[in-house]
């Protein structure tokens, strides 16, 4: 590339950056002028933006840009001088020119010469009062409307447009240019990988400075020991004065006293220096970490580029007047969260325009202003970004939702008639659910709200829909402020630290033994007017059961949408802000764990995946393997009960055996097939295995063979209970390693229980 070509390439890049910044000024100003065409400040800013683009295009030799910016400037100057009153067709044409300038600044998507000529001719006719009337279609906004179409607050929705992750951590050029102008700060491009590395190093530096604290405590203890030694030496000196000592002994004693005093003074000086160094190091490390974290934070307004324009254009294309109001634009959010929020917010805004806001005629009949209002509010609450997107439209037609549920055979008519408003609204988030009979450009495919909910859940957040008939709908979204840092409650389970994200914690409590009740064979406790299931964190995380004999049980109440459980832990360590450290990809998905982190002392803590943990609880409930938590005073009795694992793919046989053994006093767990049973055997301790032969995934013979080859399990007694009663079947089971073979054809209560007693004895050790 020649120097001239390099110069031209640099100039074109600068023009592209300026075009992005100035077209944002034009878009915002033109939308404001549409509501009040005589705003002098907005006319001035738009005129200056068009003038700047004209000059920039002339410098880089882009004649098409000069032509478009020139006619736009003429229109705005005419409005400033009062020779022209901006009507909707003028605003549409100016917005089209804004889009055309952005295309000119992007060579890969540049317009044809005929497009430029047509636009200049169009503006000429609009500026000529004597010319014929010109009808202009609403100008399509570049980014949002080019994406797949979606649907609105009521229910039906469309596929989410793909959002590509940017390769750089800095903001887009236009915002950088604008921020440089306003704040006077230089902005540099930094790759996301380097920024993540900086945040990781700063967090480790912060942890390392905390490790000075125990050394400082040791120095303080050594100082106290020297003080005690000096006092002991002084006391010895007093006692020895009563006895005649040689001169050498007196000098040696004085030297020891002097050396101890000097060492004490030196230790005090160095201790003070170390204390000062530790304090300054921790302060600088904290500032470094906070600064690195702040580099990842961006104002919420960065995700709103073009959204007001999109709402306006979509409304005009549907024959509606819609305005978007935004509050909390300066709310700081992690850049990764912002990128993932853009597509869901675009969906919800389009849904609000299409389904929520009525036509001007309908609004006037209801006593509402012609212009519909959509309000988007962003704020910080308890470490979360809270978004509220509301409209003053018609709300959701609940009866139409009810009819659609029945028509789609999602629920019987009798059940659907009894569904509450909250239950009806949850159907809108189901895949494929739509209230539209026909597919339009904007909606009707019934996949949008489902996709919105999916993407919000990927951010470890939640979305809730509320509505008031005839007055509008409101979406409430909660997502973490950052994916790099998570505020958590750190607890101890099995002697190790685990962290529960605060966003999923309903509350913490100390549960008294008498507050634990049995319902349908499961442990519950009373919480806010409902019974909440109680589970042991040690079983879920496969850690040794707690031996703590305290008077109360430490419980973390976790919630994910409608699912709520109490998780019993050993100890509350406290609330911490943790820097998320992803697990090694080679580990794959670790059950119930989402990531790791480091505590202040450098020790490792695992961050719990609450949604995955709740699925694990449901699985344990379905298979009957959920362990009871021993109440205070009954631990020894509970621990002494012998445990039996029943493996059978027949629910009837499985439950029959479980109840028989439970009634006899044994502790019983069940598995639905051989593979499930093998996983249970490897993770828990049992005194006896009772298994069927014919089962999916892994049959009983293979299960027994695996057990006999395992060093830990090979001595476990095994009973086979099968429908097969032939001698060769019996021999096959015994050859595989079974200790007892019982045919189901001759199965009865006494035979099974007698065989169990024969193999492992009574229920109590």
Structural summary, described in words:
This protein has 765 residues and is α/β, with parallel strands linked by helices. Helix 1 packs antiparallel against helix 4 (88-104) and helix 12 (335-356) packs antiparallel against helix 17. The chain folds into five domains: 3-139, Four Helix Bundle (Hemerythrin (Met), subunit A) (Up-down Bundle), CATH 1.20.120.160; 192-298; 305-480, Heat Shock Protein 90; 485-623, OB fold (Dihydrolipoamide Acetyltransferase, E2P) (Beta Barrel); 641-760, 3-Layer(aba) Sandwich (Rossmann fold), CATH 3.40.50.2300. The N and C termini lie far apart (86 Å). It is built from 25 helices and 23 strands. The strands form five sheets. A six-stranded mixed beta sheet has the order 10-14-15-13-12-11. A five-stranded mixed beta sheet has the order 2-4-5-7-6. It is flat. Strand 6 (462-468) and strand 7 form a beta hairpin.
Short description:
With 765 residues, this protein is α/β, with parallel strands linked by helices. Helix content is 48%, strand content 19%.
């Amino acid at each position: 590339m020649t120097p001239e070509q390099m110069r031209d390439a640099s100039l074109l890049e600068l023009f592209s950056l300026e075009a992005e910044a100035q077209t944002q000024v034009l878009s915002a100003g033109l939308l404001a002028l549409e509501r009040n065409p005589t705003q002098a400040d907005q006319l001035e800013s738009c005129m200056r933006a068009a003038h700047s683009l004209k000059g920039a295009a002339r410098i880089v030799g882009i004649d098409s840009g000069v032509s478009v910016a020139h006619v736009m400037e003429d229109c705005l100057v005419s409005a400033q001088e009062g020779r022209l009153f901006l009507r909707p067709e003028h605003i549409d044409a100016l917005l089209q020119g804004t889009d055309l300038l952005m295309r000119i600044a992007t060579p890969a998507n540049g317009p044809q010469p005929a497009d430029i000529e047509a636009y200049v001719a169009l503006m000429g006719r609009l500026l000529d009062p004597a010319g014929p009337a010109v009808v202009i279609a609403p100008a399509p906004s570049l980014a949002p409307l080019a994406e797949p179409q979606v649907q609105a607050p009521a229910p039906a929705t469309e596929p989410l447009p793909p959002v590509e992750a940017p390769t750089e951590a800095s903001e887009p050029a236009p915002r950088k240019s604008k921020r440089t102008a306003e704040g006077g700060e230089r902005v540099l491009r930094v790759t996301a990988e380097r920024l993540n590395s900086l945040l990781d190093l700063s967090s480790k530096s912060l942890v390392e400075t905390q490790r000075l604290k125990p050394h400082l405590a040791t120095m303080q203890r050594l100082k106290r020991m020297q003080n005690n030694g000096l006092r002991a030496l002084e006391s010895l000196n007093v006692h020895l004065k009563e006895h005649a000592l040689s001169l050498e002994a007196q000098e040696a004693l004085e030297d020891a006293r002097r050396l101890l005093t000097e060492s004490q003074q030196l230790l005090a000086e160095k201790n003070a220096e170390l204390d000062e160094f530790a304090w300054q190091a921790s302060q600088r490390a904290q500032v470094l970490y906070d600064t690195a974290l702040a580099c990842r934070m961006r104002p919420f307004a960065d995700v709103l580029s073009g959204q007001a324009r999109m709402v306006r254009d979509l409304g005009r294309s549907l024959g509606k007047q819609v305005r978007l109001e935004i509050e909390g634009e300066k709310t700081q959010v992690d850049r990764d969260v912002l990128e993932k929020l853009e597509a869901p917010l675009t969906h919800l805004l389009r849904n609000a325009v299409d389904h929520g806001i009525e036509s001007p005629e309908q609004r006037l009949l209801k006593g509402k202003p012609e212009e519909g209002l959509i309000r988007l509010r962003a704020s910080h609450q308890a470490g979360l970004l809270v978004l509220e997107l509301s409209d003053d439209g018609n709300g959701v037609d609940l009866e139409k939702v009810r009819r659609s549920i029945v028509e789609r055979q999602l629920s019987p008519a009798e059940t659907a008639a009894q569904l509450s408003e909250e239950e009806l609204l949850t159907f809108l988030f189901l895949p494929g659910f739509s209230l539209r009979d026909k597919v339009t450009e904007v909606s009707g495919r019934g996949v949008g709200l489902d996709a919105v909910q999916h993407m919000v859940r990927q951010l470890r957040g939640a979305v809730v829909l509320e509505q008031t008939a005839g007055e509008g709908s409101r979406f409430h979204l909660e997502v973490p402020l950052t994916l790099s840092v998570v505020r958590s409650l750190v607890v101890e389970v099995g002697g190790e630290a685990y962290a529960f994200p605060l966003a999923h914690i309903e509350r913490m409590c100390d549960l008294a033994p008498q507050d634990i009740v049995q319902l349908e064979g499961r442990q519950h406790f009373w919480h806010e007017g409902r019974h909440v299931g109680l589970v042991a964190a040690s079983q879920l995380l496969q850690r040794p059961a707690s031996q703590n004999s305290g008077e109360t049980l430490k419980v973390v109440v976790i919630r994910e949408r409608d699912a709520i459980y109490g998780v019993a832990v050993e100890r509350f360590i406290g609330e911490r802000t943790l820097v998320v450290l992803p697990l090694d990809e080679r580990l794959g998905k670790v059950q119930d764990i989402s990531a790791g982190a480091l505590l202040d002392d450098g020790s490792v803590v695992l961050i719990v995946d609450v949604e995955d943990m709740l699925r694990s609880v449901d699985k344990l409930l379905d298979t009957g393997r959920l362990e009871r938590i021993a109440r205070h005073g009954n631990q020894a009795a509970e621990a002494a009960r012998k445990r039996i694992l029943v493996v059978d793919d027949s629910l009837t046989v499985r439950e029959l055996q479980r109840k028989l053994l439970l009634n006899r006093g044994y502790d019983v767990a069940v598995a639905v097939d051989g593979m499930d049973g093998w996983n249970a055997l490897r993770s828990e301790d049992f005194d006896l295995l009772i298994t069927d032969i014919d089962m999916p995934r892994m049959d009983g013979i293979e299960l027994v063979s695996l057990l006999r080859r395992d060093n830990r399990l090979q001595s476990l007694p095994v009973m086979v209970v099968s429908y097969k009663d032939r001698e060769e079947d019996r021999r096959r089971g015994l050859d595989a390693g079974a200790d007892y073979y019982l045919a189901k054809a001759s199965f009865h209560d006494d035979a099974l229980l007698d065989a169990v007693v024969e193999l492992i004895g009574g229920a109590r050790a």
